[in-house]
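Document type: protein sequence-to-structure record

Subject area: structural biology

Format: plain text, a pair of labelled lines:
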Amino acid sequence: MAGRGGGGPNRPNGAAAANKICQFKLVLLGESAVGKSSLVLRFVKGQFHEFQESTIGAAFLTQTVCLDDTTVKFEIWDTAGQERYHSLAPMYYRGAQAAIVVYDITNTDTFDRAKNWVKELQRQASPNIVIALAGNKADIANKRAVEFQEAQAYADDNSLLFMETSAKTAMNSHIPKLPKSEPQGTAGQGGRTRTGVDLEQTNPQGSSSSRCCGGN
């Protein structure tokens, strides 16, 4: 876990040496209206808007959080779900350390579409990418169309992280167990040391920003 094995008491400039910085490119994929933008807004700003405008192309946001002796900076690409923007997706997930594929638990079509996104990521994204499957809108589970056990079994079969989320209630709106490269390591495939970073208990700190990308 992050924070283990910090600098010893005899190390000069120990405080500065202990302040490691990790940077992650994170992309969200999924059908339109499943709540990707709402999840990002909840994570970055702690806000929820009942009526969220559809993303055009992609939106870029950053969030910096502090976890023990590590500063984690997320570069978050929230992609549009409309079919006409599908061809743009590879430019956003290319080079990403993690992807969250979102579906709506009340809509089986969005679950099927999520499976297609997973296949595409497994085929075309970095071999080291961590893929999480998120079943959003858990606050209206009384309208559920995709059973938790079905999604969990699919995630297990495909080595995915899995959670059900609600941007509205902030249920599981953290970023779970992403890989953590050693700050001075290379970005290449061979021998990269990775451990889990679980931000469930961590409050976002530092600056966050948002800007729109893609056509109008």
User: Anything to note?
Assistant: Residues 20-164 form a domain with the Rossmann fold fold (CATH 3.40.50.300). Residues 91 and 125 are 10 Å apart (CA to CA).
